Amino acid sequence: MPIVSWTKEVSTQADGSSHVVYSMVESPDGRVFTNSFYAPVGLNIDALIEQRVAEQNEWLAEAEFSEIVGV
Amino acid sequence: MADYFVASGGSNTAPYDTWAKAATSLATALAAATADGDRVILQYNGIPSGDAELSVDTSYTIAANVSIIASTNSGTSTVTPTAMGTANWIGNSTVNRGVTLSGANRAAYVYGVTLRTAGSSADDLSIGSSSNDGLHIELDSCYLWNGNTATSSRLNIGSSGSGSNNGYAKLKNCTLRLGSTSQVIILRSNVDMVDCLLTSDGSAPSILFRSDAANPSGAYFNAIGCDFSHAGSGTLLGNCTAIALKAEMINCKLGTSFTALGTQTNVNKAGGTIALYNCSSTDQHYHFEYHDSFGSQVAETGIYANDGALYDGTNHLTWKIFTTANCTYYTPFVSQWIEKYHSGTSAITPYIEILRDGSTTPYQDDEVWAEFAAQATTTSTRSTFKNDAMTLAGTAADQTAGVGLSGWTGEGGTAWSGKLVAPSSFTPAEIGFLMARIIVGQPSITVYADPTIRT
Lengths: 71, 455
Hints:
The complex is a heterodimer. In chain A, 35% of the residues lie in helices and 38% in strands. By secondary structure, chain A is of the alpha+beta class. Chain A has a 3-stranded antiparallel β-sheet with strand order 1-2-3, covered by helices on one side. Chain A is elongated, with a radius of gyration of 14 Å. The two termini of chain A are 18 Å apart. By secondary structure, chain B is mainly beta. In chain B, helix 1 (26-32) links the parallel strand 1 and strand 2. Classes of the chains: A alpha+beta, B mainly beta. Chain A binds chain B through residues 9, 11-15, 19, 21, 23, 31-40, 43, 48, 51-52, 55-56, 59, 63, and chain B through 206, 233, 239, 256-263, 265, 281-282, 284, 295-296, 298, 300-303, 315-316, 320, 322-325, 444, 446.
């Protein structure tokens, strides 16, 4: 049950940095996981979100395993 | 009250009351220190070899309300507290040995002690035990060096028990060091940290804190003036699967682009929640965040009400509130309180200006509302509450139009200005704080709220 897509909303702050809200959609259940971070000027926002997606996929895999083995 | 000395060069002669007769084992001195107020004085650079390189997993049991103080060895009764640092330790420097400080229903103080684990097979470093309930322990200038490199090794702080969860741990000016990026600091019961450091000499964890996974009841964590920036863009509070944990950080230095709250198995407030007051990776002193599984609020400086809140007397900020897929009208996201000191006694109708960016459709009163509280009860401190939510089982209605888009800066070309208004006036009867908080029952939306209570 991996993350199959993600979206982001970026709001620019007064100092030029960004606040990023991103939502990751899981398949096939369609669960949506939302989180956020501040991004300094120059940060590759998409790369960081991709990293978070990979971490979320690990989380989902562990949760699925725990559910299967009943822990 | 007596002093019990511990030093590698002691003669190990009871009652261990001089440096010359010092015990050559910390456990020996702790076993002798059975009266409240006793002190165990440990030579900071003379740790007995059996303690410095433990041969087995070891739990040091505190038998009374005692203190353990690392000190120079003056040869006299003078105690000069001196931290062991990274040159000396109790534990092991090469192979895996679990190290635990425990003591049921004790109140203990520890100064300057370094506890160290090593090796690659998992063993934990534990301040307090998961089976020894009721320990109150205060660590001052200690170094908790979980050098074990196993991903499942843990640095456990706080105590708990199989049937209850009474425990308190305070770490002041302590250093925390982890041996793997996968390691997590486990918080049990009540934990306070003051002026602590996650040292960059250790691994940068992808998840810094979470609650225990195996013991009952909840946990509370407060950190003030700490430097956790070594955690970088990692997660501050991870998945609290078995125990709810409420975390607060105040005036802490954090990593760039950190995630405050990781995904929770319990998609409600029964998992982890975290509030961050003036915590940032930068020199900005206006950050204020709160996160739970229903949503988040953060400081926003790009969109603001023109006559709204200022964080430094000149520059504006608003509260950006965004919800997850988990909140509902019945179990909404609830912001932190906005407070305004009020001493007037005339009737007032408080309200909050809000903005919806990206749509001209007004938010309705089952989606976004405010709760107001005032000291409107004569001869009582009890608050009187009002809110502008849709009545239960009622019909949703648009919230009231606000100041208008000319009163806001930073929104896109399409937006809606509204306000959340108390449905009737308050007549304050006592001096005190007028309070308001924003409540969002609609999943996956964003609301900008000017954190100013207007009347």
